[in-house]
Design goal:
The complex is a heteropentamer.
Chain A lengths: L1 H44 L6 H19 L4 H24 L7 H23 L13 E4 L2 E4 H23 L1 H11 L1 H6 L4 H27 L7 H15 L3 H21 L5 H15 L12
Antiparallel strand pairs in A: 1-2
Chain B lengths: L3 H21 L3 H27 L6 H18 L4 H25 L2 H21 L1 H4 L12 E2 L2 E2 L3 H23 L2 H11 L1 H6 L4 H27 L9 H14 L4 H17 L7 H15 L4 H5 L13
Antiparallel strand pairs in B: 1-2
Helix pairs in contact in B: 1-7, 2-7, 2-8, 2-10, 2-11, 2-12, 3-4, 3-5, 3-10, 4-10, 8-10, 11-12
Chain E lengths: L1 E10 L2 E11 L4 E6 L5 H9 L6 E6 L2 E2 L5 H7 L1 E4 L11 H8 L7 H14 L1 H5 L10 H13 L5 E5 L7 H18 L3 E4 L3 H7 L2 E6 L2 E7 H6 L1 H7 L3
Parallel strand pairs in E: 3-8, 3-9, 6-7, 7-8
Antiparallel strand pairs in E: 1-2, 1-4, 4-5, 9-10
Helix pairs in contact in E: 3-6
Classes of the chains: A mainly alpha, B mainly alpha, C alpha/beta, D alpha/beta, E alpha/beta.
The structure holds adenosine-5'-triphosphate (2 copies) and magnesium ion (2 copies).
One adenosine-5'-triphosphate (ATP) sits at the interface of chains D and E.
Chain lengths: 302, 318, 353, 258, 236
């Protein structure tokens, strides 16, 4: 009798842990995708884009607010239109901010991107209003595998993350533009002496990074709906994912994301659940102190 | 254009203006706003050592400020000790945090350090928010008693104003003496080339920790003052946004100068209020102004006028 | 100029999260417009001075001081208890009555003669919800999921106290407002073997919590705080996530009472039909009307007179309930119980104190 | 004669690469000692280890009688070893004078922050000392005209001298110079030699890495030549110039003594 | 080939070049000498568009290039090997070389041939080909910078103090390489050098810069004999 109960409990616990792992992995890919985007911009401009959370949000708003609700486009054309709109925006931002200021100090870069984010945020509030927007039926639903459940959106996210990762790796390693990006990040003067169009290169980087942001924005709509704070936590954790995985390494970002996703879910089970985020950030700090190069990162040279 | 000598005159004018202000207008609105600006100034003075001078971006100042505020608030409301005694504990905490935060700064540079400080701020906020039994959680702490000075309770805005003004001047003086001293030079040297600092026989680790500790002590003390100024604190104040505001104060005002921190703190705490007439648009206008400042004058407003910066190398093309 | 108009202040969260200030402002503005159309009060026009409180104490303190220095005769709002707590001593010193929408039980405990509350307190709401779970839905083992902010924590404390007092088992699991995943919390509830769920959190949390409760299969009788009944919140949910959920609320568009329906019509006529009418519109509309009524009865704009008149209010018909102040300055003593079906929240009954 | 510097079987590996291999040499007090060798032979690596930039993989380093192997850079510096860098490391937003003052910080102004704040008189004294010392060195190296310029705007050649000046501010016993004359033309080099000799006469021993043979051969008391991290020759300039191995590996057939 | 007409360049308010004119014809080696801070590098940077001259014009193969962006100028066929190496520190030696040919659309095969060519000139680089450029020794970096400049088979090369930090034996080799590039591939070369003696020896003409102005110019052999040049730049 009691043995039966014990085994039942064990099975129950096992299922719970499995479910936690699966959810952790799913969230991990969200973080990882965000981390990829950070890494990309970091690799190619040596700057960190702190407005990124707001770009994710902006993408979601443009998609849901402008194209789906106002213009009434169906989902697929709306996605394309959103990415195009965001690319235009990226070009604008690149030529007005990043390119003229390409020699600015890290401090200045951080502050100006933070402020850019704030401006985007307020503009969105003024234009779309403060209320959350939803796109009914977009990527909703779930998938059951035995007793495990995963939201359909997560599956799409994992899929898209892997595709983006693969494409970016190919792009960075194999194409000339991709290689030029790495040079521009290291030494803009020398890059231009190699015949690299530094400005165009930066613009492309920013456009790619912004489009990835908007894709992230679209993907998380079914999870958090379109509101101004939708990306605040994932962007912070995405940051952490990038660092834990090894800053500068694209696959590292995914690994870091998975690490955080799983650790925080398991920690949430052991500690009071609200300490989940604390655990994630403590991991970040420990990682930075013990192995600043991250899980996959190479040692940096000074 | 003015040189360092002129800044003395400017300080004198500013102090006289601040002393006289309540005589001209004793509108609580303005007085309170200035009180807050004074508190922010102290934080900015401290942060200037790290962000303005050693060039490390600290985005966790709100966390230190928060610890200062909660330490003082909890000690005075739970154990009923005098706010002054609590202040001693706050200073002690400032030291400890400064060293604890300074330590990672030895191994991490640039964005890595910024990230750590963000994480630190976030950890503090979440802990304060979620350790409900101890900190009162999201409800915050209320009825924090005011400071007492020579038997006077600093319970009116005017008394508080003069008290905070005096404290701010004191910290401004300390900051001024540090900036224009060998320490100021070494802090800047750390930003410019850290390897060379060590070969000059100076332990760069020690200097960094000194900078962080100074900043932490300043921020913690300001936090303590803040708790008693506002009488009520809750975790929602101490967000990343606040940390960003502190950096904005240092940057927009003028990094590496006391006058810059003064100007920055006044701008950041008062400008949005002055823009309220813009209604719905006041925040965005404020952000746009700050944004323009950061990109057009990255060294801050004051440095545009300081003679020294003229000889500075211009960034080259590409 | 202040001689010719009567200024009423409104403190609303117009910037920063979470946002609801726009609805507050619209509701209050509508009340002011109606009053002015009807000839104003005491022969003077009423002017609404709207200030943003952001979501930090600092901005709250500044805006409150600004209103005081603008010589408003009373203040309506703010909506969040933490902001109320931060500025309550200011209005006490300035002797200006303030009608807040913060529902935290802490507010009632404050000894402040100028502080009034125009919404049902959390104590009432949470106790009503908890009671209904136990008595109406026969809960034996409740799981409380609550936001870790002051609102959620307050509700959880009250409800859990009630559960303990009637001998019902309970567990409570908090989440942060920024949380993007509450699987752990829900799994913890499931492991506790709960037979019903109570959710106490701000609107922002619902899309995630409701979705994951459904996905993870914790489909049991569920009751929530008023957020669920807010249209903008419902709009973010799918039908199957919240089917048959209960909630307590102070305002319901489907409430068939005439004053409510008239209010909704007027509001939609003024601001268009896409605007969703919610409790923020209704509560602060009522607040302004209440102040106007008090000024009229006081016959002067002296703030002490207004305060006294407010205390003497009897059966003032607010949109979210009949308003009668108790000794703590609380005006609302009734709450609606409602149920969500097919993403529509329908009225079940009104529960008194 | 006493040794001021003694290096015993010094080895440094970077991964699989052996940059310095079992290198031993001694430097006498009151001498100018040069270390030369082909590019990438481990010269910079050697002085990096002497000054504590990174620890050696093996071997020991003695400064006088003190074992300084693996000590931290700033400690080594306070013991009396200063250095300049091959890729100039100056405080670029500061003026030349300020750079020098930082250089003198540890020797002339050793007080901590708290005592600095509490004792303004002492603080003023320290600052004066720094001022006097920096003026002295500026005069000695003839940097008066650029003393107040911000370093970032100076041409390469000047920067080398500023760096030397900063190193002198700590009044070291031993100065490690990594290609100090690179970027100077022959006439400037001739002047520079005078400066170096003046420095030497003021009581500072020089350990010199340099590819300009006019500098090396004219002032060195002893020259150590390394290749692939190991010593291939040692002696005075005459013997080095005629050493066939050195000619083959480093000087080249065309080298003629000037 | 390249003609610089009366350019003046400023850093902020400080004028670094005063009305400098300069010319290089097909197939010649021109050297530029001058004291520290004379403005030699500034002249090079002005030509490359790294700093914009305020006045004057720069003409390359009869087309004005004065206000073109650096990368466009490189595409026209001018390569500048800057002072201070400026290698890409986080790229390997081989990747650095590859980037040298960025402006050219080489096939993979030609690219590897080119790289092999460079390894022949500087065997040291071959030994270090997988090493990150930032960890190379100073001289190795200098070799890499020179080799990287040669990668794109330019129409004009400008070297800024290429001998800086190189061992004597390598310096000899390097000057030989420069001469042979000029002789065999008929590429004109601008050589900024502190090693004035060598520079004058291999160049046909020479410019002497002083305080941002052209002080003298003429045939190298003649300048070499000038007492002024001798005392100021040749060390006696
Ligand atoms: N970035 C800069 N900002 C301000 N002034 C500069 C800058 N770069 C160079 N200068 C000034 O321009 C003048 C010319 O410098 P340049 O580097 O062209 O000299 P150079 O002849 O190449 O000297 P060197 O032989 O030392 O390399 C110098 O007086 C220098 O101070
Ligand atoms: N961090 C490192 N990682 C790998 N290899 C390194 C590192 N630092 C130096 N090396 C290698 O060690 C060897 C010695 O370098 P070092 O800088 O000591 O040479 P050097 O004698 O100073 O040469 P130069 O005269 O060119 O300056 C070089 O081949 C270099 O590539
Ligand atoms: Mg070297
Ligand atoms: Mg030069």
């Amino acid at each position: 009798m009691s043995i039966v109960r014990v085994t039942k409990e064990v099975v129950f616990l096992y299922k719970i842990i499995l479910q936690l792992l699966v959810s952790g992995i799913a969230m991990g890919f969200v973080y990882g995708l965000v981390g990829i985007e950070y890494t990309l911009i970091w690799n190619s401009t040596g700057l960190l884009n702190f407005s990124h959370e707001r770009i994710i949000m902006l993408g979601a708003y443009i998609f849901a607010g402008s194209f789906v609700l106002q213009t009434g486009l169906s989902v697929l054309p709306a996605i394309v239109a959103t990415i195009i709109a965001i690319i235009f925006f990226a070009v604008f931002v690149a030529y007005t901010i990043f390119i003229p200021l390409r020699n600015m100090s890290a401090l200045c870069a951080i502050m100006s991107t933070v402020m850019l984010g704030n401006i985007i945020n307020e503009s969105v509030r003024l234009y779309y209003g403060p209320e959350a927007i939803t796109v009914k039926g977009f990527l909703t639903g779930m998938i059951r595998i035995g007793t495990l459940v995963v939201a359909r959106a997560y599956v799409v996210i994992i899929f898209v993350a892997l595709i983006i990762l693969a494409l970016l790796l190919l792009f960075m390693m194999k194409t000339k533009t991709g290689k030029a990006m790495r040079c521009v990040a290291q030494n803009k003067n020398a890059s231009s002496l190699m015949g690299i169009d530094v400005q165009k290169n930066m613009m492309i980087t920013i456009a790619i990074s912004f489009s990835i942001c908007s894709i992230i924005g679209l993907l998380v709509i079914p999870l958090y709906s379109v509101k101004q704070s939708m990306a605040s936590m994932i962007s912070l954790k995405g940051f952490a994912a990038g660092v834990i995985g090894g800053f500068g390494s694209l696959p590292g970002a995914i690994v870091g994301g998975l690490f955080i996703g799983i650790i925080e879910n398991i920690a949430g089970m052991i500690f009071p659940s609200t300490f989940k985020d604390v655990v994630a950030f403590v991991c970040l700090i420990l990682m930075l102190l013990l192995r600043p190069s991250g899980i996959l990162g190479k040692k940096r040279i000074s | 254009m003015f040189s360092r000598k002129h800044t003395r005159k400017i300080y004198a004018v500013l102090i006289i203006a601040a002393l006289a202000f309540p005589l001209i207008s004793n509108n609580t609105y303005y007085i309170t706003m200035l009180c807050l600006a004074f508190i922010y100034m102290i934080v900015a003075f401290g942060l200037n050592f790290i962000t303005g001078m050693t060039g490390q971006v600290n985005l966790g100042t709100a966390g230190i400020f928060c610890i200062g505020a909660y330490t003082s608030a909890l000690l005075t409301t739970k154990t009923f000790i005098s706010p002054w005694l609590a202040l001693l504990v706050v200073i002690l905490f400032g030291f400890v945090i400064g060293i604890a935060l300074g330590y990672p700064s030895l191994r991490l540079k640039g964005v890595y350090l910024s990230l750590t400080t963000i994480a630190f701020g976030e950890i503090v906020r979440q802990l304060v928010n979620n350790m409900t039994d101890f900190t009162g959680g999201a409800h915050g702490v209320r009825a924090i008693p005011p400071y007492c000075l020579f038997g006077f309770e600093l319970n009116t805005k005017l008394r508080l104003y003069y008290f905070l003004l005096a404290v701010t001047i004191m910290f401004g003086l300390i900051a001024y003496r540090i900036i224009y001293s060998k320490w100021g030079r070494v802090f800047t040297a750390i930003r410019d080339n850290i390897d060379a600092v060590d070969t000059c026989g100076i332990s760069s680790s020690k200097v960094k920790i000194i900078a962080f500790t100074l900043a932490a002590v300043f921020a913690a003390i300001a936090g303590g003052l803040y708790a008693h100024y506002s009488g009520y604190i809750n975790p929602s104040t101490f967000t990343l946004n606040l940390s960003v505001s502190f950096v904005v104060m240092v940057m927009v005002g003028g990094s590496g100068t006391v006058l810059g921190s003064v100007l920055g703190a006044v701008l950041v705490s008062i400008l949005p209020e002055m823009l309220r007439f813009l209604g719905n648009y006041y925040q965005i206008v404020f952000y746009i102004l700050v944004f323009i400042c950061t990109i057009l004058i990255p060294n801050g407003i004051v440095n545009v006028f300081l003679e020294r910066q003229k000889t500075k190398a211009l960034p080259e093309k590409n | 100029a202040s001689e010719e108009t009567i200024k009423i202040g409104l403190l609303a969260t117009l910037t920063g999260y979470p946002l609801n200030g726009e609805h507050m402002a619209k509701g209050a503005q509508m009340a002011v417009d109606e009053i002015n159309e009807a000839g104003g009060i005491l022969g003077k026009k009423v002017e609404l001075d709207i200030q943003d409180v952001g979501n930090t104490t600092d901005v709250g303190i500044n805006s409150c001081n600004l209103l005081i220095s603008n010589k408003v005769v009373s203040i309506v709002g703010p909506h969040y208890s933490s902001t109320c707590l931060a500025i309550e001593n200011l209005i006490n010193a300035a002797k200006i009555p303030m009608l807040v929408g913060g529902t935290s039980p802490k507010i009632a405990k404050i000894d402040n003669d100028y502080l009034f509350r125009i919404r049902a307190s959390d104590t009432m709401q949470a106790v009503a919800a908890a009671k209904y779970l136990v008595e109406g839905l026969d809960a034996k083992n409740v799981a409380i999921l609550y936001g870790s902010d002051d609102f959620g924590t307050g509700g959880m404390e009250i409800a859990s106290e009630h559960f303990s007092s009637v001998g019902v088992d309970w567990v409570a699991h908090p989440f942060n407002n920024e949380d993007t995943d509450v699987t752990t919390q829900i799994l913890k509830c499931i492991t506790s073997g709960c037979d019903s769920v109570m959710i106490w959190a701000t609107e922002a949390a619902y899309p995630i919590v409701a979705r994951q409760l459904y996905e993870l299969g914790l489909i049991v009788p569920t009751i929530t705080n008023p957020s669920l009944a807010v249209d903008s919140c419902l709009a973010q949910l799918e039908q199957e996530w919240v089917e048959d959920w209960y909630c307590v609320t102070d305002f319901l568009t489907s409430n068939s009472e005439e004053k409510v329906q008239n209010f909704i019509k007027a509001y939609e006529a003024k601001y268009g039909t896409e605007e969703s009418v919610d409790l923020h519109c209704a509560a602060y509309y009522s607040g302004v009307k209440l102040v106007a009524d008090a000024i009229e009865r006081a016959g002067s704009t002296d703030t002490d007179a207004i305060r006294n008149a407010l205390m003497e209010t009897k059966d003032f018909e607010g949109i979210i309930g009949t308003m009668n102040p108790n000794e703590n300055g609380e005006f609302i003593h009734e709450i609606i119980l409602a149920q969500c079906n097919d993403l529509k929240v329908s009225y079940i009954k009104t529960i008194g104190e | 004669m006493k040794n001021i510097l003694r290096v015993e079987s010094l080895t440094k590996r970077f991964g699989g690469l052996v940059a310095v291999n079992d290198l031993s040499f001694e430097m006498e007090a009151r001498s100018i000692h040069s270390l030369i060798g082909p590019n990438g032979s481990g010269k910079t690596t050697t002085i990096n280890m002497i000054n504590g930039t990174f620890p050696p993989t093996g071997g020991r380093i003695y400064f006088g009688e003190t074992d300084i192997t693996g000590m931290q850079t700033h400690k080594i510096s306070t013991l009396g070893i200063a250095r300049t860098f091959q890729n100039i490391k100056l405080f670029s937003t500061m003026t030349v004078e300020e750079n020098l003052k930082v250089g003198g910080h540890s020797r002339l102004a050793p007080h901590g922050v708290v005592s600095y704040l509490l004792n303004p008189v002492e603080a003023r004294k320290e600052e004066n000392k720094l001022q006097v010392a920096s003026e002295e060195i500026i005069a000695m190296l003839r940097l008066e005209d650029i003393a107040k310029s911000v370093v970032a705007s100076l041409p390469y050649g000047k920067l080398k001298i500023v760096e030397l000046a900063r190193a002198l501010m700590s009044r070291p016993q031993l100065l490690l110079l990594d290609e100090p004359a690179a970027g100077l033309n022959p006439s400037e080099r001739a002047e520079f030699i005078d400066v170096l000799l003046k420095v030497f006469e003021s009581g500072i021993d020089l350990f010199l890495i340099e590819h300009n043979m006019d500098v090396v051969m004219n002032i060195s008391d002893k020259i150590t030549v390394i290749n692939f991290g190991s010593k291939i020759a040692e002696g005075d300039s005459a013997s080095i110039q005629n050493d066939p191995e050195v000619i083959k590996a480093y000087l080249g057939e065309k080298y003629i003594m000037i | 080939m390249l003609k610089v007409n009366n350019i003046s360049t400023y850093y902020g308010k400080v004028q670094a070049l005063h009305n400098v004119s300069f010319e290089i014809k097909d197939e010649e080696i021109v050297s530029i000498i001058g004291a520290n801070g004379a403005g030699k590098s500034t002249l090079m940077r002005s030509i490359m568009g790294l700093v914009q001259p305020k006045e004057g014009e720069i003409v390359f193969k009869d087309e004005e290039i004065t206000n073109l962006k650096t990368n466009k100028i490189v595409e026209r066929g001018i390569v500048y090997v800057p002072e201070g190496r400026e290698v890409f520190p986080a790229l390997s030696v081989e990747d650095n070389l590859e980037m040298g040919a960025f402006s050219k659309k080489y096939s993979q095969r030609i690219l590897s041939n080119k790289i092999e060519e460079m390894y022949d000139i500087f065997p040291r680089l071959k030994e270090r080909k997988k090493q990150l450029a930032g960890t190379l020794s100073g001289g190795e970096q200098q070799m890499l910078a020179i080799a990287r400049g040669l990668m794109s088979s330019p129409e004009l090369i400008m070297f800024d103090e290429p001998s800086l930090g190189l061992a004597p034996v390598i310096v000899d080799d390097m000057f030989e390489v420069i001469v042979s590039i000029n002789r065999q591939q008929h590429i004109p070369i601008v050589l900024v050098e502190q090693n004035a003696f060598e520079a004058l020896r291999i160049s046909s003409r020479c410019y002497v810069l002083e305080n941002g102005e052209v002080r003298m110019h003429g045939l190298s052999d003649e300048l070499m004999k000038s007492p002024e040049v001798k005392s100021a730049y040749l060390g006696g």
